[in-house]
Amino acid sequence: MPSEVNNSEYLLEAKALGKQFPGADSVISVLDGVDFALRPGESVSIRGESGSGKSTLLNVLSGLERADSGQLFWEGKDVTKYSLSKLAAARTRFMGFVFQAYYLAPELNALENVLLGARIAGRVDASVRERAEALLIRVGLKERIRHSSTKLSGGERQRVAVARAMINDPVTGIS
Ligand SMILES: Nc1ncnc2c1ncn2[C@@H]1O[C@H](COP(=O)(O)OP(=O)(O)OP(=O)(O)O)[C@@H](O)[C@H]1O
Ligand SMILES: [Mg+2]
Fold first, then answer.
1. CB 110 within 8 A of CB 140
2. pLDDT one-digit tens code per residue, 132-147
3. Residue 123: helix, strand or coil by DSSP?
4. Is residue 30 part of a domain?
5. I need a surface site. Which of 26, 67, 98, 157 has the fewest CB within 10 A?
6. Does the residue 173 lie in any domain?
7. Range 39-65 average pLDDT
8. What is the tens place of the pLDDT at every residue in 3-21?
9. Is there an atom of ligand 1 within 6 Å of 21 CB?
10. Rounded to two decimals, what is the model's pTM?
């Protein structure tokens, strides 16, 4: 019987993750028994051929998609059985995510896109606004703070997405 809480030193841990997608003729097994663990302060890169399952793995580790099997722990808590709403609430506190396709809101400027991350977590005030501007400056976008997101270059969009991922100061605790 899998335990609800493990007392490991890992910030994030996954055990035996499995994920399949329905294909045109057969089921595509993308993740097949993936174990993964990350300690606080550790940096990890994941390499693999196009289509090998990197984005799927990140989506599952961050709770954007559910695994079909296996267990996922955030700060030792088994989030596998969390309801979607509980998982979403935990994710806004625990996780910052930069998507492969950015997913910036086209009608918003760079600053408003960064603030969107805070708005979703219900945290917009003057200090958050200052923090958003500081993050944009930190990623080298001082001259583009109010630039339309549709007129940013690809790398600039990616950097706005990085600032948005950091706005809620992720990993300050999910409990
Ligand atoms: N929602 C889905 N439905 C069906 N198949 C999917 C779905 N999402 C991903 N796949 C398939 O699963 C496999 C893994 O996709 P994934 O996006 O995780 O790959 P990736 O390693 O991130 O690739 P890339 O380097 O090209 O971004 C691919 O073969 C893809 O076609
Ligand atoms: Mg990908």
1. no
2. 999 999 999 999 999 9
3. coil
4. yes
5. 26
6. no
7. 94
8. 455 667 899 999 999 999 9
9. yes
10. 0.84
Q: How confident is the model over 80-118, as pLDDT tens digits? A: 989 989 998 899 888 888 888 889 999 999 999 999 989
Our answer on whether the CB atom of 28 is closer than 6 Å to any ligand 1 atom is yes
Looking at the structure, tell me whether residues 114 and 77 fall in a common domain.
no
Is 89 part of any domain? no
**Ranges of H-type helices in the chain:** 54-61, 84-94, 110-120, 126-138, 154-166
Residues of the domain holding 140:
110-166
**Spatial distance between the Cα atoms of 139 and 144, rounded to a whole number of angstroms:** 11
Ligand 1 centroid, distance to 52 Cα (angstroms): 7
Does ligand 1 lie within 6 Å of residue 56's CB atom? yes
CA of 146 to the centre of ligand 1 (A): 34
Q: Are 121 and 168 in contact (CB under 8 A)?
A: yes
List all residues 6 or more positions away from 68 whose beta carbon is below 8 Å from its beta carbon: 18, 19, 20
